[in-house]
Specification:
The complex is a heterodimer of chains A (about 375) and B (about 375). Chain A has about 375 residues and is α/β, with parallel strands linked by helices. Helices cover about 65% and strands about 10% of the residues of chain A. Chain B starts with a helix and ends with a helix. In chain B, strand 1 (about 50-55), helix 3 (about 60-70) and strand 2 (about 75-80) form a beta-alpha-beta unit. Chain B has two domains: about 5-45 and about 175-370, no CATH class; about 50-155, abc type-2 transporter like domain (abc type-2 transporter like fold). Chain B has 15 helices and five strands. Classes of the chains: A alpha/beta (about 375), B alpha/beta (about 375).
Chain lengths: ~375, ~375
């Protein structure tokens, strides 16, 4: 391996990057667009949910209950004349749930026999439906408490649960989504940058041109890896700056450690892209595999949105070969919690194994031969 | 200028052959989507199971053990051990060994027996605040059930009300029923976009585009020939995925296939139109792929696949109006779960058809611009 040949190959790759600016777009425009869309667009916190309300026989008691729903920032009650209209609103989606207080509600409640509050939620989005049920039950408990106090009856719950949310006391979903998102964006960048470059050389036939030069296969691979590594780290730095200064996500861990972990991850992602492009030799296949093997698993299997503990055991095992899984853990800890070594060491170890695996396979499968 | 069906068909057949000739391209059209549907169908769930938790119990009484047993016995939680001091508790949460810690004070049992309120601390890991919020919600349900049994007799509320809730369309609130049709939509979009988005760029790179130009075909015919394989591949792919969703995942299909396929047709029209737009713009396959990606990723995020559109800020909600996946997901979920027929889905069909026709017109313009 000679330094001169390597720098020559790197220079050639840099020219290609500059000439077709799509690589630069991948490294900088993609993080910008995605962070903006996710950061502002993705939220699991429901606010102002429209809820259909039917009161058969309005009294002060029913009015105070509906008033409680109105006061909570979660609901916007909309009155309907009858059950049929309310049900139609739930079906066509103009209300997420319907609350129905029947004719005898007040009479039964005051006479002490249980008065039912009928609730229908649209269960198509099961997660959202469960959140709405929790909100409704919460509003109902507060209302019961207030009624009791107003009538001077001493009530108290035997056990009061006090919630403490560590690392993110305000439960800002943005604080945990943005670090996870950086992991996904870097997965995309790493795979896209390399997945296409080798496949492109095969398709255009320029690979033959490189083959006839005296460069060894390590030089060819490093010549591909180094320029895209630099480009990818630029994208990583850019994303981190956006997270800290635009989205105000706290960065509690150390910056050198963040850079070290990111480099390790980027090498793994680039290694995977390189392996895909060496195996595919065709940009359509390389592109399909890159999306299918990187972006979607990073989105669904990394623990970024869906809890890994809740997945079936087989799928949990599968998540161990997804590099983004380790990086999501690293970033969430480094941003929100700080330098917690047990997490950093175990996740970096996982990344290092994958990194050696992908790069090793790439070296083995890359042959300087035309067949 | 009149269109010749024979020429369009000839080009479509050629497109098919170039897509299917390569065994690797053939394999990626069928294998990965099915594997993804299977893996993601099981993985993508918001229903928490086995949330690992530790207990720091300073109380030696019977009631605290009863209280903990309710958590340990719940399918949502999995007890992984006792800790003996605050530091060990902190270590367990810091290192993510436990997602939740339950801390019970020394007075728990005696407080309850003497009718005083006892406080229990639930510490959750906010690094993933969605899971944290869900876990706290589950914990609260268990605490409420515990309270109901230990409520002192004199503290009955004045208005005796109960909440009776029912969930329509998905009575057990299984998030898989919601997610699997969503994955079907994503995979259909992926396959159609990729098979049309790269087709022109591939010809440009291989130099066969010039040959295409000297044939008697006009731009409309070329576009139609390029669009046709996308329809066939997309329809077959969607059918396969929907079959797996029904037969393997047992997601109930309550609507009409006719309404679903009308929706699929409109959706394919718009995604192929966008694919052709990308195709006409891209000079290289790399650019085509990048364009596909730049469209796909936001389209998935903004479609309401994983997070509800209603929670998005107003500006972002307006952007979702041009996302074809958004409409198709409604059609899929309504056909699967709500038993909706074509008349209820009208508001999803026409935006899809509009996006489709507009993008086809733009693609044709772009294409002609590039030819001249």
């Amino acid at each position: 391996m000679t330094w001169m040949r390597l720098t020559g190959l790197i220079r050639k790759e840099v020219y290609e990057i500059v000439r077709d600016p799509s690589s630069i777009a991948i490294a900088f425009v993609l993080p910008l667009a995605l962070l903006l869309i996710f950061g502002y667009g993705v939220s699991l916190d429901a606010r102002g949910v429209p809820i259909a309300v039917v009161v058969d026989h309005p009294t002060t008691l029913t009015a105070s209950f509906i008033g409680q729903l109105q006061q909570s920032r979660w609901f916007v009650p909309i009155h309907y004349a009858g059950e049929a209209q309310a049900q139609k609103a739930v079906t066509d989606g103009s209300a997420a749930a319907a609350v129905w207080l029947r004719n005898d509600f007040t009479r039964r409640a005051l006479s002490g026999s249980p008065a039912p509050i009928h609730v229908i939620v649209n269960g198509v989005d099961a997660n959202q439906a469960r959140i709405i049920e929790n909100y409704l039950n919460g509003a109902w408990s507060v209302w019961i408490e207030q009624q009791a106090q107003a009538s001077g009856i001493h009530t108290r719950a035997p056990v009061v649960a006090e919630a403490r949310v560590w690392f993110n006391p305000a439960m800002r979903s943005r604080d945990y989504l943005v670090p996870g998102l950086i992991a996904i964006i870097m997965t995309l960048i790493g795979a896209l940058l390399t997945a296409l470059v080798v496949a492109r050389e095969w398709e255009r036939g320029t690979m033959e041109g490189i083959m006839v030069t005296p460069s060894g296969k390590m030089e060819i691979l490093l010549g591909k890896l180094i320029p895209y590594f630099v480009l990818g780290m630029g994208g990583m730095l850019f994303s981190t700056l956006m997270a800290v200064f635009l989205f105000r996500v706290p960065l509690r861990g150390s910056i050198p450690l963040l850079l070290a972990c990111s480099s390790l991850f980027l090498l793994t992602a680039l290694g995977m892209g390189l392996l895909i492009s060496i195996l595919a030799r065709n940009q359509f296949v390389a592109g399909m595999v890159a999306i299918v093997a990187t972006f979607l698993p990073a989105f669904i299997l990394s623990g970024f949105l869906f809890d890994i503990h809740s997945m079936p055991k087989v799928v949990q095992l599968l998540t161990h070969v997804i590099a983004a899984r380790y990086f999501v853990g690293l970033l969430q800890t480094l941003f929100l919690a700080g330098n917690i070594w047990s997490i950093i060491v175990s996740n970096c170890l996982g990344l290092a194994i994958l990194c050696v695996l992908f790069l090793g396979l790439a070296v083995i499968r890359f042959r300087k031969r035309l067949d | 200028m009149e269109l010749s069906l024979r020429r369009i068909l000839a080009l479509a057949i050629k497109e098919f052959l170039s897509l299917l000739r390569n065994p690797a391209s053939r394999a990626v059209l069928i294998g990965p989507p099915i594997i993804q549907l299977l893996v993601f169908g099981y993985a993508a769930t918001y229903d928490l199971k086995h949330v690992p938790f530790v207990v720091y119990n300073q109380d030696s009484g019977r009631l605290s053990r009863d209280f903990i047993a309710r958590f340990a016995g719940s399918p949502s939680f999995e007890m992984i051990g006792d800790v003996q001091d605050q530091r060990a508790l902190q270590r367990a949460v810091d290192s993510q060994t436990a997602l939740m810690a339950v801390s019970i004070g020394p007075q728990f049992t005696s407080d309850l027996e003497q009718g005083r309120t006892s406080h229990v601390q639930f510490i959750v890991d906010g690094r993933d605040s969605n899971t944290a919020a869900l876990a706290l919600g589950y914990a609260q349900t268990i605490v409420t059930a515990f309270n109901r049994e230990h409520l002192a007799p004199h503290s009955r509320a004045p208005a005796a009300t109960v909440v009776l809730d029912r969930a329509w369309f998905n009575p057990n609130l299984e998030s898989r029923w919601f997610i699997v049709p969503g994955i079907a939509g994503i995979l259909t979009l992926l396959v159609t976009l990729l098979s049309t988005g790269l087709s022109v760029a591939r010809e440009r790179e291989m130099g066969t585009f010039d040959q295409l130009l000297v044939t008697p075909m006009n731009p409309q015919e070329i576009l139609a020939g390029k669009a046709l394989p996308g329809f066939v591949v997309g329809t077959l792919e969607a059918t396969l995925i929907i079959a797996v969703a029904i037969l393997w995942f047992r997601v109930p299909f309550t609507g009409s296939f006719w309404a679903l396929y009308l929706g699929l047709f409109c959706f394919l029209l718009s995604s192929i139109g966008i694919g052709l737009m990308i195709s006409a713009l891209a000079l290289t396959q790399q650019q085509g792929l990048l364009g596909t990606f730049l469209f796909m990723v936001p389209a998935i995020v903004l479609s309401g696949f994983a997070t509800p559109i209603a929670n998005m800020p107003k500006v972002v909600r307006y952007i979702t109006l041009i996302d074809p996946l958004r409409y198709f997901l409604v059609i899929l979920r309504a056909s699967f779960l709500e038993g909706a027929g074509a008349s209820l889905l009208w508001h999803q069909y026409w935006p899809l058809a509009t996006i489709g026709i507009l993008s086809m017109i733009v693609a044709e313009r772009l294409f002609r611009g590039r030819l001249g």
